[in-house]
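Retro notes, structure queue

What went well: the backlog is down to a handful. What didn't: a couple of records were mislabeled last round, so from now on we paste the full input next to the output in the thread. Example, using RNA 3'-terminal phosphate cyclase from Natrinema altunense:
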Amino acid sequence: MRIATATLVDTLISFMSVREIDGSSAGGQFLRTALGLAVLENEPVRIENVRGDRSTPGLRHQHLAVLETMVELCDADVSGDELGSETIEFDPGLASAGRPGTGRLEGGSYAVDIGTAGSTTLLCNALLPLATILESPLSVTATGGTDVAWSPPLDYLRTVTLPLLRRFGLEATCEVDRRGFYPDGGGEVTLRLAPSRLERINLAGRGALQGLRLYSTESASLADRDVAHRQAEGALERLDGVPGLGVTERHETTVTSPSPGSALVLRVDHGTGIAGFSALGERGKPAERVGEAAADAAHRFLEGAAPVDRHMADQLLVFLALAGGRIRVPVVTEHVATRCDLLASFGAGIDRERDGGTVVLSSEGCK
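Corresponding output:
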């Protein structure tokens, strides 16, 4: 009888400790972050109204792929893991139930097929914080879109996100086997993570400009139109004359891909950090205009004082909450605000202080 009673009590405690989260005013980013935090905290969650503010709410292919990957990595218990599902229950169960923050994650090698042109870079971003609880190296090979709308292009991940995070202790690399543009996708990347101990993040000031790196990519089907070269020229003409912004690297690449497409990433190096700006080719849009779009975003950044761009501000928040520190960002975007609120619900609040035309985000850290 004692055993039965103890089992019942444990079950009730586990049930009562499930964290309930409402995604009715958020999208896929909210879901990915919530799943990652659940793993980091080793805490079961119930997410309702998944992607509730989207015209087609519920899980789409790329969101389901992230959920399934998290389940496989943790050998987690899950319900609602199907296309269109608007309610998910996810219990990572890495250590003992009811003891948040005590889990450790085994490494290994995994493969994920997102399907169509679902974003591989968003999947990678969701997995990056897990390096802080790894017991051994982790390798995840993902098939899907590498350069698609509403997500960081592959070169942004490889040349902006990862180099910046490596400065603060994250051990991560991303290898590309094949590019995948919309609509067919078919790209393949491998994310490699090693057990990592983060250092406190200090990105409160920019420092002097150190140069510009340019990465322009075209599918082989567009090579006869010199798309990669024209994108690069469009960006550089727009940035001509910016003091201290000499070109230190220029890469124009032709790649094999199931779909025609192109992408451009500009990386601005400066005294304390890295900022990135990107644009994707579109049917009917001249390649020069693609380059100009990325350059215009870089111009807006250079007019301010923040050391990171508006998209990187969002990507750094979980690491800021884990390691502690200060980050000056250009603006609190909707994504930043939503992720800050979600972190606060897990007890990892981010302080926000307006300072002139920028905002300083700070945290004492929790790891």
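Agreed that this is the format going forward. Reviewer comment attached to the example: The domain at 209-302 is CATH 3.30.360.20 (Dihydrodipicolinate Reductase; domain 2).
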